[in-house]
């Protein structure tokens, strides 16, 4: 099978995708600078798949080094581009850091391949903002981004779409993730936030194991059945498998155009309080939580229409909330016994 470059391949979604690519028979090469991940993840991947993927430590913002890397690895057939800064709060405080990193890395990659490559781009449902209609489809209008991070995803999609329009040999699939959670069933890889987790599930697991204090539920007065905000949570392994499906679609020339967009979610929403309940019921661990005020910039409710992904990618999320919560908890317990 062909060789796939995975940028940010030691990150949360990247590491799971490396495993699924290997399972599908692909050869993988990882590029990472470890600015938001741990080098030990490479050993963890090896423990799962039995071989150590090739890794090149590289800052994708260094144009000359990226060009040199691609020249030396001229057998790469496709790219899955995860590498990006992603902390919403930090992006508000340091917008230029985010614009520089997230745009330079993408542009340098495309230029290094002379715009002749199959590229799967890691995008986000943040491009929709608070949708006018739910579930949100890929045709829904994008809203003004709530943060510089979200704006980098919107603008990156525009860069790719506009480049594809004048570059027939560039084939791109943008995958708009909803909320990835969970961990590999081996509990050898999972989400590894640096500092205080910004996402709900790792904060839940860290609180449950004693690393953090009580969980704050931000708002219980939303227009939802239980008053807490609703999101579309998807197991990271399901998400990783979708990237394999996207690469296969590009390789087999099944894409309807050279720029396509797909939602990746379960197609249904779960509230914060439902996630807390799912964790407690699937692990038997009681959580300590309090109700706080709404957070500025938080969206009330969003979940995706995944009809297009099911029909055209031939992919569908299979793992349920129970598996998401129990696998995340297994990973947290593994980290307690095997600190990174």
UniProtKB/TrEMBL annotation:
EC number: 5.1.3.2
Pfam family, one: GDP_Man_Dehyd
Cofactors that this protein relies on: NAD(+)
Keyword Kinase in record: no
Keywords: Carbohydrate metabolism, Isomerase, NAD
Catalysis: reaction(s): UDP-alpha-D-glucose = UDP-alpha-D-galactose
Similarity field: Belongs to the NAD(P)-dependent epimerase/dehydratase family.
Protein name: UDP-glucose 4-epimerase
Organism: Pedobacter hiemivivus
